[in-house]
Amino acid sequence: MTFTFDNTYARLPERFFARLAPVPVAQPRLIKLNEALADKLGLGLEALRSPEGLAMLAGNRVPAGADPLAMAYAGHQFGGFVPRLGDGRAILLGEILDPAGERFDVQLKGSGRTPFSRGGDGRAWLGPVLREYILSEAMDALGIPTTRSLAAVATGEHVFREAGALPGAVLTRVARGHVRVGTFEYFQARQDTDALRQLADYVIARHYPEARASDQPYRALLVAVVARQAELIARWLGVGFIHGVMNTDNMSIAGETIDYGPCAFMDAYHPGQVYSSIDHGGRYAYGNQPQIAQWNLARLAQALLPLLDPDQDQAVAQAQAVIDGFAPCFEQAYLACFRAKLGLLEAQGDDADLIDGLLRAMAAAGADFTNSFRALCDAAAGAEGSLRAQIGDGGPSEAWRARWQARLAREATSPEARAAAMRRANPAVIPRNHRVEAVLDAAVAGDLEPLDALLQALAHPWDEDPMFDEYRRPPAPDEVVQRTFCGT
Questions:
Q1: Is the dihedral of CA 442, 448, 453, 457 positive or negative?
Q2: pTM greater than the 0.90 cutoff
């Protein structure tokens, strides 16, 4: 057996999902198998590569013990509420336990029409499938909570989008859970308090068991979700990540980064940076992500009101108090993240202003986000040349460097030790947009070597190995990617 399933979500009432099998594909072909993840999950590589394993990863064979279903959920999309979304092109095969006893969902994306497809074909094409594979694995290597990609399979069929006929593919996604803020909104919209309670109890049992010990378990659940999201968004900002579609149906209750569509890592720093082709108003810009997370969490709090207190006013007061706690929780996580990036080993009252000063200098200079922070590591060890090249020489940037050096001097740490610690907080290699796009173009043309090379580099984000130097280079002017696309 490749998978041993224990499907708890499938034991919830039928109104939580639609039971159906994936739609088979014509000619499945394995594009990429994540051997490290397969090993972590205790899955047999030989079995996954076998014809039976390939058929399972493609959706042509439902493995024994699976209970495939499409999950129901709603969501606020760019601020507007859609009461019925759901898995329109994904099938949850079931849940497995890894050798350590941790539970993971196994889901197929691009597996055909479901009752939630809303007229779509339920399929995915190769570009977005590989994009999610690349980005999610890069995030995992950076230590940021994320869904992961187990396999990418070509279908031997075409899907049709605005660009015409494109090669089809299926992604096998692994996650700690697929319940979203929008899952709670789905039952709130139907005024189904019983389902809300069952869903909340399920999430507590699976993801937040400590909440059960509270005399107010549903409030404790909300507090825990807020804390995880605050930490997650702070870590996104720390690596220059822009999700691009922070709709409530794309916010995981488990606290993982989920649904990689038009996401991107910044090149030149600017707080208003947007890449997503569908984010016309900049709602989900880099610097807006904390406030959007809080807005999304407020939608979760609204859904939980019937569970918080039978008195509406008391329920609202409890919910508001928890949501108000997002800002200090996020600030704590953000400052901890950026202190590490700046080499500040002790918390001081002016740290936020010092961090902001560097970011202002970077924005004014159009400095590369990743390389500026990496150059800061060298500057901490006494070599300021690369930092000057990034943020400029003289004026406000010179004043900031002097202030930063004076701040470091107040701590009894050797420059070498500080720089080494900073290099563990500031990646040298990220999935730069122009590199990702080039890899996708090559893969669609049938060349997978660039994909393998990029994944190898991204697996070692902290290393300055000369063999990965080309992946550290920012885009040339004619390589800059201005827009990224959802790919649905």
A1: positive
A2: yes
